[in-house]
Automatic annotation (TrEMBL):
Residues 1-392 form the Major facilitator superfamily (MFS) profile domain. It comes from the Bacteria. This is MFS transporter. The chain crosses the membrane at residues 7-25, 37-58, 70-90, 96-113, 134-159, 165-182, 212-229, 249-268, 280-297, 303-326, 338-360, 366-388. PANTHER family: INTEGRAL MEMBRANE EFFLUX PROTEIN-RELATED, STAPHYLOFERRIN A TRANSPORTER. GO terms for molecular function: transmembrane transporter activity. It is a multi-pass membrane protein. It comes from Clostridium paridis. GO terms for cellular component: plasma membrane. InterPro entries: MFS_dom, MFS_trans_sf, TM_effector. Pfam families: MFS_3.
Length: 397
């Protein structure tokens, strides 16, 4: 394993557990305060709307500045926000509006953090080991998705949500230490003429538009981002309104989702030498849609758990494959901007999906939220696949 990647990976091991503790703590806190899936959807929207608005600008920043310095800034800022949220809950001054403000600020930080983190991986692991590195990152992310919600649920049940946020703040010290020890010699930034930001954004968009593989991948990611990856709204709403569960039930279900994702990440890591295939991304998206639909048709905790395990497995197969396709098929000078577009259509599309999902869960029911999400993914992904198959035939004829 590459020395720099090892430092980065080990730092993330501790930090991501704290992140998942905060994620479930924040969602359950808002649902407890408001008792409204729609307002929970607004929270998710507010947290991701900066990514929607500013991702393209962030891509230019990522291509211009050393990525290690950017990550030190974003991780330190996220740590401060975690401590602020913890302090508000400890002091009983927390309100829904305050949580929205913290979520918005965190979204602004993530706007830079996400494309920087994606583009940084290839610098510390190399192109040859990129897919394996992405899979390893996914494995710790999803191991944290298992441990974080489980630990967070117990902490919330016995000590309160404030401790989830506090532990998350402390966990950032590990990733900051790892980043500090990484030696990347200026992050290998190539000297190039820097035009104005708008011109560089247009150049990046034009580059993606003219590459059929990149464009198809990004459109599929957009569909999944809008309609499928709304688990922060779907799962707590389904737990509370359909299964009549509590914090422990919610934590258990998120852990099952993480368990499936962990197995999926390990599977991708083992098969990484074969390289990313568009066929894998397409099949994975179809399976995800089927699992969402089936979940909307059942009211059993055991069956829901099984479906979430399968969903998690194919979530990782899709996201790792699409991420690798984009990075390996992007030129070095465009990678930051390509990954900022990836962040835009993946995380930046979340506000749309969260509002829609929250509204459906609030007015029709949590089961309907799963059904609509799964149906939309199934129809749109098939349409995209057919259109681009025709494009590829035309391009070769």
């Amino acid at each position: 394993m590459h020395r720099n990647f090892r430092y980065f990976w080990m730092g993330q091991c501790a930090s991501l557990i704290g992140t998942w503790m905060q994620n479930i703590g924040q969602s359950w806190l808002v649902l407890s305060i408001t008792n409204s899936p729609f307002l929970l959807g607004i929270l998710t929207t507010v947290q991701f709307i900066p990514v929607t608005i500013f991702s393209l600008f962030a891509g230019v920043i990522v291509d211009r500045f050393p990525k290690k310095r950017l990550l030190l800034f974003t991780q330190a800022s996220s740590m401060i926000l975690a401590f602020i949220l913890s302090a508000m809950v400890f002091s009983n001054t927390v309100k829904y509006e305050y949580i929205l403000i913290v979520a918005f600020l965190l979204g602004c930080i993530n706007c830079i953090d996400m494309p920087t983190r994606q583009a940084f991986t290839v610098e510390i692991a190399g192109k040859e080991d990129l897919m394996n590195a992405i899979a390893l990152n996914s494995s710790i992310f999803n191991l944290a998705r298992i441990l974080g919600p489980s630990i967070g649920a117990v902490v919330m049940a016995y000590f309160g949500a404030a401790w989830c946020f506090f532990f998350n703040g402390v966990s950032y010290l590990a990733v900051l230490y790892g980043l500090y020890n990484i030696d990347v010699e200026g992050n290998n930034i190539k000297q190039r003429v820097k035009s104005n930001i708008i011109s560089e954004i247009k150049d990046g968009l034009s580059y993606v538009k003219n590459d059929i593989l990149l464009l198809e991948t990004l459109l599929m990611v957009c569909i999944i981002g809008i309609f499928a990856f709304n688990y922060n709204v779907l799962v707590p709403s389904f737990t509370k309104l359909v299964l009549d569960g509590n914090e422990k039930t919610y934590g258990l279900l998120m852990s099952f989702l993480g368990a499936g994702s962990l197995v999926g990440a390990l599977n991708v890591s083992i098969r990484s030498k074969r390289g990313p295939k568009m066929k894998v991304a397409f099949i994975s998206s179809i399976v995800i849609s089927a699992m969402l639909i089936l979940n909307g048709l059942n009211k059993s905790l055991a069956f829901t758990s099984l479906l979430l395990i399968i969903t998690g497995f194919f979530n990782i197969a899709f996201s790792t494959t699409s991420n690798s396709l984009l990075q390996l098929n992007s030129k070095d000078e465009y990678r930051g901007r390509v990954m900022s577009i990836y962040s835009l259509v993946f995380a930046g599309a979340t506000p749309i999906g969260s509002l829609l999902t929250g509204w459906i869960c609030d007015n029709i029911g949590a089961s309907a939220g799963f059904l609509v999400s799964g149906g939309a993914v199934l129809i749109l992904v098939i349409i995209i696949r057919i259109i681009f198959k025709i494009k590829k035939v035309d391009a070769t004829s």
